[in-house]
Amino acid sequence: MPSEPPRSPAQISNTSGDAVAQAIAKYSAGLPALVAPTTESRPSRFIVLLTGSTGNVGAHLLAFLLTHPQVARVYAYNRPSSSNACILDRQNLQCTAHGLDHGLLSSKKLVFLEGNLHAAQLGLQRHEYDELLAQVNLVIHNAWHANFTLSLPDYEPLIAGSRNLIDFARASRQCSDSLRFVFVSSIVSVYSWKHPGIPVPEVPLSDPAVALGMGYGESKYVVERILLNSGLRSSTIRVAQLVGGRRTGCWDTSELIPNLIRTSIAVGAIGNPNALIPWVTVPDAARVILDDALAESFTGANVYNLEHPRPVSFSALVDYFNDALVHQGILLSPLSVVPTRDWIPMLQKTITRAGVPTPESASKTTALFVWGLRSTRIENPRLADLPALQMDKLLSRSVTLAKLIPLEAEDVARWVEYWVGIGFLERCSLPSHQQAGGRSKL
Questions:
Q1: 286 and 368 together in one domain
Q2: Which of 214, 322, 429, 430 has the greatest number of CB atoms lying within 10 Å of its CB?
Q3: Cα–Cα distance measured from residue 54 to residue 90, given in angstroms and rounded to the nearest whole number
Q4: Collapsing DSSP states into helix, strand and coil, what is residue 172?
């Protein structure tokens, strides 16, 4: 998810379909014919190369892999930290944030690796690279830089790195027998789906125009297509909006929705886009990905869509937020719920009163709410930017997805509690459950 508010749609990307197609062609060059077998010998044990283990999804993937009885080893591969923090410290921070078992990081199954995907041999020592070539039979490519303000050229190093990882998989000793490659993509890769009322199918989409709109989604689409061209047994999983898990409620405050809530508190109201919310918690998304990656059968090149099969209404979610915000003493009374068309002028007035220095800053803050609409399934077609997704194929592969329960008040309470705990939201009074005679609403 982005580290800053996105720009308005017209500002986000000027990429053409031709530019996306050229990137696919450039990074598919030299891929000789390699047809993914229609049958396989399923590994008796999995040796996994996981990229991006220190991210939110990656930390959960790592924890779940390390506790899986059929996983014998996990190579947790990450790029070096810009702060020089060691990889174990970074992983420990994620364990703390998400309530994951720190003891797993001492597992004999776990091997940490640092490198750059776009470098020769993935930036590893020769003996490390050779060990991976000999051992790995499952690649889960989860690492990505999520910033919705970047353009497609900004993502070229990650695209080049993905091609290197695909080349590694093709050269693996396990390739012709049992190697699996799973790419964690995004719903933003189908940002410009142009068929209102028709959910995005779980198939490869050949027209690059479907991805246009943001460099982030365009880059994911490019790698989807390169992977399909590789001939590997593969899964591409287009993931929708992810939210904090119930254990700690950890939800990165650089992301949109936390900022939308804080902005709404400043306004004193929240807009109601008449939307359905198909968000999935990070832990559940990680389990769904592994349901596919470790499945009994894994053949061909597949594309799946992942969002919540039982979305909740935006109105219900607002009620949950209001209860939690009052309960925590952040609000004395619930936020007003107003039509979106009324909320945006209210936001602009709040910005003016706060003395925001430039019109550009104001427009970015307004765009925050507009982008919020794009992370929902909007019932009003005039507001619909991101489409609904078909999920029949993934539902048939993932027991986790099939059994997901809708988001509830407890989920929202955990998010708010987490944001208060880290100082992102400030109380204006004692929490209601600590006030004399107060009764908890949760």
A1: no
A2: 214
A3: 6
A4: coil
- The share of the chain scoring above pLDDT 70, in percent, equals 84
**In degrees rounded to 5, what are phi and psi of residue 190?**
-120, 35
Q: What is the pLDDT of residues 234-290, one digit of tens each?
A: 999 999 999 999 999 999 988 878 888 998 998 899 988 778 899 999 999 999 999
Is residue 197 domain-shared with residue 52, that is, in the same domain?
Answer: yes
Is the CB of residue 400 less than 8 Å from the CB of residue 37?
A: no
Give 30's contacts (C-beta < 8 A, 6+ positions apart). none
Residue 312 pairs in a beta bridge with 277
The CA radius of gyration of the chain, in Å to the nearest whole number, is: 22
Answer yes or no: are the C-beta atoms of 23 and 158 closer than 8 Å: no
In a domain, 237, yes or no: yes
Residue 161 lies in a domain: yes
In a shared domain, residues 266 and 142: no
Q: How many domains does the chain have?
A: 2
The pLDDT assigned to 309 comes to 96
Q: Which helix (H) or strand (E) holds 213?
A: none
Side-chain-side CA neighbours of residue 400 (13 Å): 17
CB 396 within 8 A of CB 296: no
Least confident of 176-190, 230-244, 343-357: 343-357
Residues in contact with 36: Cβ distance below 8 Å, sequence separation at least 6, in sequence order: 231, 232, 233, 234, 299, 300, 301
Tokens of 368: 């925050």
Q: Do residues 53 and 142 share a domain?
A: yes
Whether residue 399 is contained in a domain is answered as no
The residues, any chain, with a CB within 8 Å of residue 216's CB and separated by 6 or more, are 2, 146, 147, 148, 150, 155, 186, 188
User: What's the confidence (pLDDT) of residue 382?
Assistant: 28
Residues 269 and 180 in one domain: no
- What are the tokens at 240? 């929708």
Strand 312-313's sheet: what is its strand order?
Answer: 312-313, 275-277, 377-378
Structural domain includes residue 409: yes
pLDDT at site 343: 84
Q: Are residues 212 and 349 in the same domain?
A: no
Contact 372, 266 (CB under 8 A): no
Report the distance separating Cα 318 and Cα 335, nearest Å.
Answer: 9
**Claim to verify: residue 284 and residue 349 sit in the same structural domain:** no
Domain with residue 180: its CATH number is 3.40.50.720
pLDDT of residue 84: 72
Residue 222 sits in the same domain as residue 319: no
Domain that residue 337 falls in: 256-277+311-385+405-433
Torsion angle (degrees, nearest 10) of CA 400, 402, 403, 409: 100
Q: Is 386 helix (H, G, I), strand (E, B) or coil?
A: coil
